[in-house]
Design brief:
The complex is a heterodimer of chains A (114) and B (115). Chain A has 114 residues and is mostly beta strands. Chain A has no helices and 12 strands. Chain A has strands at residues 3-5, 10-14, 19-21, 24-26, 32-38, 44-50, 56-58, 64-68, 73-78, 87-94, 102-104, 108-113. In chain A, strands 2, 5, 6, 10, 11 and 12 form a 6-stranded mixed sheet that branches. The model of chain A has no long low-confidence stretch (mean pLDDT 91). Chain B has 115 residues and is an all-beta fold. In chain B, the strands form 2 sheets. In chain B, strands 2, 4, 5, 6, 9, 10 and 11 form a 7-stranded mixed sheet that branches. In chain B, strands 1-3-8-7 form a 4-stranded antiparallel sheet, with no helix packed on it. In chain B, strand 5 (43-50) and strand 6 (53-56) form a beta hairpin. Chain B starts with a strand and ends with a strand. The model of chain B has no long low-confidence stretch (mean pLDDT 91). The chains are: A mainly beta (114), B mainly beta (115). The interface between A and B is medium-sized, with 26 and 28 residues.
């Protein structure tokens, strides 16, 4: 079955700490991978996406993610978090067969302490 | 450029009433997707529509839920005879052509509370 797993449900960090959020997927076809962020009270915004090419993808606000095909992973990283990064982060796979729809992970709630 | 619009942002219904959620896609987008986010869970795909067509409704509950995207006007997600378990955030997304390698853009969501 197609699925996306985010193992960290809640993460608390101090400002300037480094961040890595795990994302593993189970999908048999070619994958298109995304990270979305949802700030409190706001809609989902795209952080970054991977379709093909360089497996290290850079997104907005200093975020990056690395696609490791052998590990079925697409972890999100940021070297130094800020208080304003407090949000919920969702990893998603866009299916590439049949109709194109997202399969989302359950999300990781990040709280950054000032 | 207006993004994806959803209204209402918050909706309160009593058990047995009907809920209608509206979604206006981004300008130039003809593909609409509805997702539901239950408390403490990720977003789950419900239905994918183009204008006047339902393309994929594999995520829709079999009863009480329906969706449409008419030629004119917004897409509507309709929930009849709501129950407490329908309380959730409902997100709409749109894309230009519905193809692979296409980012979907999300609206702010409608938070439905069933009393």
């Amino acid at each position: 079955a197609q699925s996306v797993s985010q193992h960290n449900h809640h993460v608390i960090l101090s400002e300037a700490a480094s961040l890595e959020l795990g994302c593993n997927y189970s999908y048999g076809g070619t994958v298109n991978l995304f990270w979305y962020v949802q700030y409190p009270g706001q809609h989902l915004q795209l952080l970054l996406k991977y379709f093909s090419g360089d497996p290290l993808v850079k997104g907005i606000k200093g975020f990056e993610a690395e696609f490791i095909k052998s590990k079925f992973s697409f972890n999100l990283r940021k070297p130094s978090v800020q208080w304003s990064d407090t949000a919920e982060y969702f990893c998603a796979v866009l299916t590439t067969s049949g109709t194109y729809k997202y399969i989302f992970g359950t999300g990781t709630r990040l709280k950054v302490l000032a | 450029n207006a993004g994806v619009m959803q209204n209402p942002r918050h909706l309160v219904r009593r058990r047995g009433q009907e809920a209608r959620l509206r979604c206006s896609p981004m300008k130039g987008h003809s593909h609409v997707y509805w997702y539901r986010q239950l408390p403490e869970e990720g977003l789950k795909f419900m239905v994918y529509l183009q204008k006047e067509n339902i393309i994929d409704e594999s995520g829709m509950p079999k009863e009480r839920f329906s969706a449409e995207f008419p030629k004119e006007g917004p897409s509507i997600l309709r929930i009849q005879q709501v129950v407490r378990g329908d309380s959730a955030a409902y997100f709409c997304a749109s894309s230009p052509q519905g193809g692979t390698q296409e980012t979907q853009y999300f609206g702010p969501g409608t938070r439905l509370l069933v009393l």
